[in-house]
Amino acid sequence: MDRRLFVSDLAGYAALCAVVPNIWRVTSRPTFTEYPFALGVASGDPTPTGGVLWTRLAPRPFEPDGGMDGTRTTVDWEVADDEQFSKVVKRGRAVAAPELSFSVHVDVDGLAPDRWYFYRFTSGPAVSPVGRFRTTPADGATTPLAMAFASCQHWEQGYFTALDHLAKEEIDLAFHLGDYIYEYAGNRKAVRVHHGLEIRTIDDYRRRYAQYKSDPMLQRAHERCPWMVTWDDHEVDNNYAGLVGENRMESDEQMRNRRAAAYQAWWEHQPVRVPRVQSWADLTITRRVSWGQLANFWMLDTRQYRSDQACGDGTQAACDEWKDPSRTLLGTTQEQWLLNGLTTSARWQVLAQQIMMAPYDAAPGPEMRTSMDQWGGYPAARDRLLGEIAKRAPNRTVVLTGDIHTNWVNELHSDFARPDRPTVAAEFVATSISSGGDGADVPPARLSTMQGDNPHLKWFQNRRGYVRCRVDASTWTADYRSVPFVEKPGADVATASSWRVEHGKAGIVKTG
Fold this sequence. Notes:
Mean pLDDT: 94
Largest sheet: 7 strands, mixed
Oligomer: single chain
Helix content: 10-25%
Shape: globular
Low-confidence stretches: 1-22
Number of helices: 9
Distance between the termini: 86 Å
Radius of gyration: 24 Å
């Protein structure tokens, strides 16, 4: 080859590499104009020997690529016995890539069971915040568990004060049951305003996650302990069902594209271990996490595989479509996976999912009106599941629920079409972190009226907060932790109500 042509070509390639992001450029000496760990750190999906550690490089989170220059960047990580990192037990290096918004998911293994650890990331001169992480007990152990669960954190409707209090709880695990973000356009009259219009593209969803992840209270809660995260509807589109959007105006192809963008952005911003798929639009998030022999937690997806809501959605009287036994919430594959798992020998079987399972008749008297978006809108699927719980795991099954922005305690019967059927499970429904604003006190007369048409309802409250639980081999206790306001900062937290379920015994007992 002519030397002059070779030198000319080499100079051209060098110039191209300098200005165009490309897959073979990786830097281990990045320079950042701003702090690159502005979105914090998180951990999740723990096992007896490890778990997932997460961060995302985003020095300017609301710019394209989070303010990175498009170059793949190395990120070092460390796991230590102590917060000062004088006893590092694991370390490694990951690469943050533009294709995945410079997110990092480290699947750590080789740790000791039932242990607390500390972790952090570094990239160039920047060091991330320090997070706490713990492994689950070894198989067969019945080590007691302290945990909390929450859902629905609408940025515009209030401050994440409840998460600030959750970050101070002595818990081993936190569960977030969906509506981690909201897709709506910004409202200039809101408590805090969303950036931009309603989100639809991958860049839109990334910016919205960046806005939520920038909240210091949310960051502190993630730093406290590992999280188990699932999604509900607002991570994509309000009340979507499969490929049917809220307004039913988008084609299947448009909804698949929107779902792919939303699911990818969700994965990029969460500490989750989920299987690879050919398309982001079909991301599978159903998975099991075991706490030794004490509890199996079944992380469910009640959005992606469901039949469209019956009777035009909303709260409606029953129609013929509502009664159709072929309609599904979980889809055949997920439902069978769950039912097979309920036969395992864990002391507690726990369904961590999104929508209220107990029916709720919202019309006083003989008329019946129910939410078509909840399990009550899919009665055949609900009673099929509860019937199998009655056979496979009666009175050792607990359902954890979010979505509804209010607190509920429900006893679940094996068949709600027959009120005389026995109680086989307990349902604890957590209110929102901020969605719905401050809320309001519930007069005793209203609760009495609600219980008249819904005798399985034990308690109801309309404030914001989360649920704290203590679990051992014989007892499950649930404390409803509540804040009086979220539309301004600074609210204290208090226990509004406490409940107990005894293993193998029907019913839920109020203890406070």
